[in-house]
Design goal:
Largest sheet: none
Radius of gyration: 18 Å
Shape: elongated
Number of helices: 5
Structural class: mainly alpha
């Protein structure tokens, strides 16, 4: 089983980094533009479908993360950093599920108006708070991978 800790942790780390890249694209490209043009995030109007990226990205990361954690449970160093990563990831996902995703889904159906643009800009600013949580999760995953490499 020890032989599989490094590959599982490495793959989970790679998927965490993919999510971080998606977050960078979201905060750097999509979020600055869509409050003025909601059609950019409205799939029915030719815009991007955010769920086509985020659902598979999170599902793949979380599945591989669980496998890595199960394999590494007996290694305190790896386990600690994996738990740090999942705590940060879980905080981001719970906050997203409770506050951000329902509003994002509403924006996908909204029409352009000054009120919608103001609300969308506020949403984009609040959504920035998810990015540091992703950075923490990725950093912890990287340290977990280094710890896993040391035990193999």
């Amino acid at each position: 089983m020890t032989d599989f800790i490094l590959p599982a942790t490495s793959l989970a780390t790679a998927l965490a980094i993919v999510g971080l890249g998606g977050g960078l694209y979201k905060v750097g490209v999509i979020d600055p533009a869509w409050p003025q043009r909601p059609d950019l995030i409205q799939p029915d109007r030719g815009g991007i479908s955010r769920k086509r990226f985020w659902i598979p990205a999170h599902a793949a990361f979380e599945l591989l993360f669980i496998i890595a954690l199960a394999l590494a449970w007996s290694s305190a160093d790896v386990r600690f950093w994996l738990l740090v990563a999942i705590a940060s990831h879980a905080a981001m996902r719970i906050w997203s599920a409770i506050e951000l995703i329902p509003k994002a889904l509403a924006f996908e159906k909204a029409t352009c108006s000054p009120e919608t643009e103001t609300a969308a800009s506020r949403w984009a600013r609040r959504s920035l708070g998810r990015f540091p949580l992703d950075v923490i999760a990725c950093g912890a995953m990287l340290v977990a991978t280094i710890a896993a490499a040391r035990i193999t």
